[in-house]
Each structure stands twice: as C-alpha cells, then as structure tokens.
Design a protein that fits this description.
Number of strands: 0
GO cellular component, one term: nucleolus
Number of helices: 5
Distance between the termini: 86 Å
Shape: extended
Family: Belongs to the RRP36 family.
Structural class: mainly alpha
Helix content: 55-70%
Biased composition (Basic residues): 147-167
Protein name: rRNA biogenesis protein RRP36
Strand content: under 5%
Function: Component of the 90S pre-ribosome involved in the maturation of rRNAs. Required for early cleavages of the pre-RNAs in the 40S ribosomal subunit maturation pathway.
C-alpha cells in the first residue's frame, strides 16, 4: 500500500484493494449438500453397524482378560454406552417403521376416496404403551415391570403426603 501523509486528510472515496475471502460453508446448513433424510442416511451408513458389532465383541473380550480395576471400569462403561446406543437405535427404527406403516394406511384410505385421519400425539403414545406391554408380556417380564412401577408410584405418593413431623 502507498504511504500517505498524515497531514493531508484522506479522500472520501479512497480506493481500497479488496482481499478475496475464503468462503467457508457448513454442510449442515448448505443447500449444495442436499437434504438430510434419516432413511437414506441409515441405508448409506449401514456398514457401520457391523463394525460397531465387531468393536463390541472386541471390548467384551478385553473386559474378560483385563485385571486392572480402573481399566475394567472404563471398558464396562464403554460397553454399557454401546449397548444403550444400540437399543436407542432399535427403538428409533421401530418408531419410524410404525409411522411409515401409518402413512401407508392413510395413503391407501386416500386412494379409496376416504378422508385421511391423523393420530394425535396422545393416541400415538397410547399405542406405543400398548405395544410395550405386549412386548413385555411376550418376554415374560411384565410382572417385574409392573412391580417396579408400583414401587415407584408408592414412593411418589409417600413424598406427596404430609410428613409426620408436621402433625
């Protein structure tokens, strides 16, 4: 840049050399990256499930061999986290399949000329709860689940009651 005198005031419209900035783009918010569709994402990256399964087996083997308590605890936490992620993924998959089947039913009804009927959130929740109870009944864990639920509710009720000190 040219050296300018400090005594002479700078012109109002001075010529500035523009520096080209690098345009950074975030693929999460950019249209060039396309639209996120969970179904397509799951299909594209389905190979990761097999890799995760192998890693889980490897961690289980390491856990059996490990003697160090700290290391063993870390491996156990990692294993628990992996199983929880797996369960959450299965739950999400079931939910999306259920919604997809409901959509298909609505499309069939629309093709027949009937007016579509969409379930409320509360009705969806009731269906999910009924499905959960049916699953527990099949696996034979319904009784233990209900006992735990009763205990939890009893504790909640106890907390709501006024304490004996106040009487």
């Amino acid at each position: 840049p040219l050296e300018m005198s400090a005594k002479k005031p700078a012109p109002f419209l001075r010529q500035v050399v523009s520096v080209t900035k690098k345009v950074r783009r975030d693929p999460r918010f950019d249209d060039l990256s396309g639209e996120y569709k969970p179904e397509i994402f799951m299909k594209t990256y389905s190979f990761l499930d097999s890799i995760k399964k192998q890693e889980k087996e490897m961690i289980q083997k390491q856990l059996k061999k490990c003697r160090n308590t700290e290391q063993k605890e870390k491996l156990q936490q990692l294993l628990n986290r992996m199983t929880q992620q797996e369960q959450a993924q299965k739950k999400q998959q079931k939910l999306s399949e259920r919604e997809l089947s409901l959509k298909r039913q609505q499309r069939e009804l629309a093709k027949q000329g009937k007016k579509p009927f969409f379930l409320k959130k509360s009705e969806k929740r009731k269906l999910e709860l009924a499905e959960k109870y049916a699953e527990l009944k099949r696996s034979g864990k319904l009784e233990s689940f209900l006992n735990k639920k009763r205990k939890r509710n009893a504790i909640k009720d106890k907390r709501r009651l006024p304490s004996q000190k106040n009487l």
